[in-house]
């Protein structure tokens, strides 16, 4: 019986391939917009502060979802809930896949405006597209730019004085922003 089912599936794949509907490798690619919809559905059900950072689907149907919260941290329960919603709405008979849902890591660069807002008032390191690097406190977030409060020691009359300066950096000039992790 199992052999007949396999032969039927193989014949179906061959027919689809000959019509240009199927890959010769017999891998059904998962539709990214379908996964985005499933994620949005679950996020709307469990929390208004959760949002999608990144969704990647590899050619081998490895689904990687990265989420964050506007306030606080993403819980394991929230990751599991999103993972299960995706898993229960895909058919493993048609689409073999693996799934990984995680929160945005502290070591990863910011990729969403909400991450800047969440980390306002914290120490960050910014690399610009013209290879400049700034460290300071994320003071203000505007629609087109951020304001970074930097400080450095300068000598004035043989004394070290702390000089504080605000630097405006346009979002389109930012290559990477990361939080500075401090254990002080």
* Low-pLDDT residue intervals, each spanning 5 or more residues: 1-6
Radius of gyration: 24 Å
Q: Classify the secondary structure makeup into a structural class.
A: alpha+beta
Q: Biggest sheet, in brief?
A: 5 strands, antiparallel
Q: Record the strand order, biggest sheet.
A: 7-6-5-4-8
Number of strands: 8
The arrangement of helices and strands along the chain is HHEEHEHEEEEE
For the record, the CATH architecture of the largest domain stands as: 2-Layer Sandwich
CATH class of the largest domain: Alpha Beta
Amino-to-carboxy terminus distance = 66 Å
Helix % is: 25-40%
How many helical stretches?
A: 4
Number of domains: 2
State which percent range the strand residues make up. Answer: 35-45%
Mean pLDDT reading: 87
* CATH-assigned homologous superfamily of the largest domain: K homology (KH) domain
Query: How would you sum up the global shape?
Result: elongated
CATH third-tier fold name of the largest domain? GMP Synthetase, Chain A, domain 3
Care to give the gist of this entry?
28% of the residues lie in helices and 36% in strands. It has 184 residues and is an alpha+beta fold.
Task: Outline the structure in words.
This protein is an alpha+beta fold and 184 residues long. It has two domains: 31-103, K homology (KH) domain (GMP Synthetase, Chain A, domain 3); 113-179, SH3 type barrels (Roll), CATH 2.30.30.100. It has four helices and eight strands. It has helices at residues 2-18, 32-46, 76-88, 113-118; strands spanning 50-57, 62-69, 98-103, 123-128, 133-141, 145-156, 159-170, 174-179. Strands 7-6-5-4-8 form a five-stranded antiparallel β-sheet, with no helix packed on it. A three-stranded mixed β-sheet has the order 1-2-3. β1 and β2 (62-69) form a beta hairpin. The termini are far apart. Residues 1-6 have low confidence and may be disordered.
């Amino acid at each position: 019986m199992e052999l007949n089912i396999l032969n039927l599936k193989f014949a179906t794949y061959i027919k689809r391939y000959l019509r240009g509907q199927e890959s010769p490798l017999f891998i059904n690619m998962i539709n990214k917009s379908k996964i985005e919809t499933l994620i949005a559905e679950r996020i709307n059900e469990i929390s208004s502060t959760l949002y999608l950072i990144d969704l990647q689907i590899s050619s081998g149907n490895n689904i990687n979802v990265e989420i964050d919260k506007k306030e606080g941290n993403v819980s394991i329960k929230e990751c599991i809930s999103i993972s299960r919603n995706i898993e229960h709405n895909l058919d493993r008979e048609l689409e073999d896949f693996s799934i990984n849902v995680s929160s945005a890591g502290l070591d990863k660069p910011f990729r969403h405006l909400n991450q800047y807002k969440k980390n306002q008032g914290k120490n960050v390191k910014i690399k610009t597209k013209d290879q400049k690097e700034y460290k300071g406190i994320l003071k203000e977030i505007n629609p087109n730019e951020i304001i970074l409060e930097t400080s450095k020691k300068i000598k004035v009359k043989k004394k070290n004085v702390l000089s504080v300066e605000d630097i405006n950096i346009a979002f389109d000039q930012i290559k990477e922003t990361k939080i500075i992790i401090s254990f002080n």
